[in-house]
Amino acid sequence: MSLNMIPVAPPIPLTLETSNASNVQESLQTSETFTNLREQISLRCGTLLEETSTQDVESRKAYQYCLQIFGVEKTEKCRLISSYLPVTPVLQNGPRCGLVALAMASTLTNNQPVITEDIFKEAQTRGYSKQGEMFMAKDLQALAASFLKCPVHHCLVDSKDLFSNLLKHNLILIPYDADKNFSPCSKKGHKSHWALLTGFFAMLEANKVTDQLTSECVRDDEIHNLHYWPHTASQALCEETVQLLQENLESLYVFGHQGKSRYVGLWSLPRLIESNSNLTEAGQMRPSGEYVIPDGDIEQGLRGQMIVINRNQDT
Length: 315
Fold this sequence. Notes:
This protein is of the alpha+beta class. The protein contains 12 helices and 10 strands.
């Protein structure tokens, strides 16, 4: 399998959740090209995809990921439904992950994208942040409402509500604990980070997918069982699909962007929600004197919360 990438060094070293991680890390600096190593890493880490890519490219890579994880037989028996909005990556400088995620969102909502530095200055003026940290979801929502040209809502994290919005091509800002490879983990909030979700990838048993669903989707030119979610879906189809996805959460992934990598992440939705629900404390590496931390710690400010950016104002 080829990822069709130029062999370049990764933005920062990736760490595998496997016993031979050190061997892979060592080979990053020796004989193998990053193209081949990135293929190996992505199959174990959850996975990192292409930067500033397109829906079909990222969806086909997600398909390859399923082949490696679940096998050819199981993958070929499923219907794969994908939706992805490409984003221009913005890398963070300092603890500005929430501000950078918001800046990336602006590339999909505004004629003129917002500059991270402008958001940072406003956050400081309002007393929301000292160094760019955003430990209050409501504060980030307030900033988003000021800078984006569309409605923005602060919500409690709910799987049904989350992918209902992704079906409508809305955007999600969500805090979570980021592992060394940027995929969701559970560190009690000590690695809390913000991500922007711009799409989903579902692996569904063929006998559970209706003809209406596949007929309204667009089939991929190369992969017979890969279908792209329509740009404008009927309300009936959305309701049907929400119910179907709710019953198959373990087979649902999201496409995520965050400020420490140029690449797209493909993450398990249940694992992301679990990571979000474990955010309870900022940790000793983030003293309150240097950051704006709510009285109830990040359990009050971040846990169980997300921000919905409504790109389609009639939904």
